[in-house]
Amino acid sequence: MRYLLVLFFAFQLFSTSAIGQEYKYHDVKPGETVYSIAKSYNISEEAIYKYNPDARNGIEVSSKLVIPIGEAEASAERSEDVSFKTHKVARKETLYSLSKQYEVSIEDIKRYNPHLYSAELRTGEEIRIPVGGREKAPAAPERRTDADIKNQITDTREHVVIPKETKYGIARKYGLTVKELEALNPKVDILQPGIMLRVGTKVLDQPVILTDNNFEFYEVQPKETLFSLSRRFEVEQDSLIALNPALEDGLKTGMVLKVPNKGQGFGNLSTSETEELNDPDRLEEEAMASTRLDLRNTISNRKTKEIAFMLPFNLHKIESDSIEHYKSAIQNERILRLSLDFYGGALLAIEEAKELGISTMAKAYDTRQNAGEVVNIINTNNFDDVDAVIGPFLQSSTEAAAARLESRRIPVISPLSNRSMRPFDNLFQSRPTDNMLQDAMLEYFEENAGNRNIVIIADGQAYQIKERLRSIFPSAPVITPSNGNISASKLNESLVEGRENWVILESSSVGVLSSATSALNRLARDREITLLTTDKNSTYDNFNISNDHLARLKLHYPSVDREYNREVSEEFLEEYIEKYGVEPNQYAVRGYDLTLDILLRLASAKDLYDSFEDHRGYTEYNENKFFYTERAEGGYHNQAIYIMRLNEDLTLSTVE
């Protein structure tokens, strides 16, 4: 009863305030909907949702709704008669495609289907499409500088708090920051209905922001993009813009957004809208990702390190112990060559660590590319004092090793596999997955596209990445191959002069890659063109794909490793050539980089796990860098990825 009296008092005050708004309660009757109630009061559905956010989840008979009577006249002046068509959502349809099909805005569709503000379209669901009339768009909010706002604060008016209003919502309505609102009202700590607040005199044409169990607040952090936020909160970009109209002017660091509440605590603003963060670990992780470590300066644990290498040497396939048979096996068995190259680089890293005062006892086991053999090795050998296992190479063998050693907390480091593996607490995947490479490149696109002209080329096999690209660049033309080839005339129509053209090519077809790169190479004579891809697959190495063309087009792509700098890696190269008589390939370099990183980490803390707690940041060596993050479901994954550029002299350089 006391709560009802407070509400009644609040509405009485509010009806006589300078704003001139009046309210009444409406008891929901059987058969009534938000739409029918809104029509009966000559107001919009959004006006009801504005003061009754829980109504988005449905209304019950006899429940009470707050009805803003004062908005009826303004709403009537804004609206025209609207009729509707029921549309059943088909597979692959999006709000964008429906808006084009029915020639209505995405916002109009969401206005009459409010659940789409926080949920995605579902195949088979029925939604209402407004036809025959449309609400006029509200005037755009006036842009003002910080100086304008500060000057305006000298003139204030009064605002009476209504149920479920928040400081952020009120501040935003009057063009203030939360801190400015709090400065005007220093004695108000907690908002209660009926409280009178001092606010600015100019009301922005934006609704008051209310939160409920479906939404939370989030403060935008440096380097975040609209695309990365849409992925974080699992919501389309246009939904974020609908919830936060200020995003139409661009995303800015420090903006406070209303976002769907996924029940995982991703929001970082408390309900009182102070700017204290709820998730400092995530922010620290982002900061550490850009902090480079030199673990040579942190060596403290001088205990001899025991490392077990599990590699598929496949020695059982060699018929005899003669040197000729070994030579023949090395020449003909690719897996054996790869294992020997990796192990050769690892042995050199062990020697390097020894010079730094780190003693290592290394044992090598032949896994025979067999998970059962891995289990047999662990069962028949003493692993009690092993500090880390490097290998095996294959997913099934690696998972078998991690499963057997998890209870003893012995780290298992997967050296080469790019597949997402089962979560074991002791499993360290040192190679990012293909999905992680793709995500890194998509973030690069969004952060750096700027004012460039974007063109997308994607074949039928690349439909998933094509849809993701279209969500980032909805206005970009998409060119689909015809008969396995790309038409130069279609490319020419999509390119523009006077601006840099970014052409994103997604295909693993020789015909598509060959025709596209050849045509782009010719068109680049009088246009500025950069070629990019999220997947530099093996087809790019086909002899039909000209490296000269790729170089002239400055191909950009994501990569696990980079090309080593001879000057920086001179000592390593000299030692490797002296020891083995040849230059190291990428597997030898990876064996060296990975092993040295593990040994330095073991020497910098009590164990491998503690090293990531004690020394936060990324490490980098000849061709590889490592930034392990703990997975929520278990284990660790290396998140460090390079964005590479192929230069005109056919050398490679890192973009970031």
UniProtKB/TrEMBL annotation:
Q: LysM domain location, by residue?
A: 24-67, 85-129, 157-205, 216-259
Please give the SMART domains that the UniProt record associates with this protein: LysM (SM00257)
Q: Tell me the first and last residues of the signal peptide.
A: 1-20
Keyword Signal: yes or no? Answer: yes
Pfam families, per the entry: LysM, Peripla_BP_6
Q: Which UniProt keywords apply?
A: Signal
| Cited InterPro entries | Leu-bd (IPR028081), LysM (IPR018392), LysM_dom_sf (IPR036779), Peripla_BP_I (IPR028082)
Similarity comment? Belongs to the leucine-binding protein family.
**Stated name of the protein:** Amino acid/amide ABC transporter substrate-binding protein, HAAT family (TC 3.A.1.4.-)
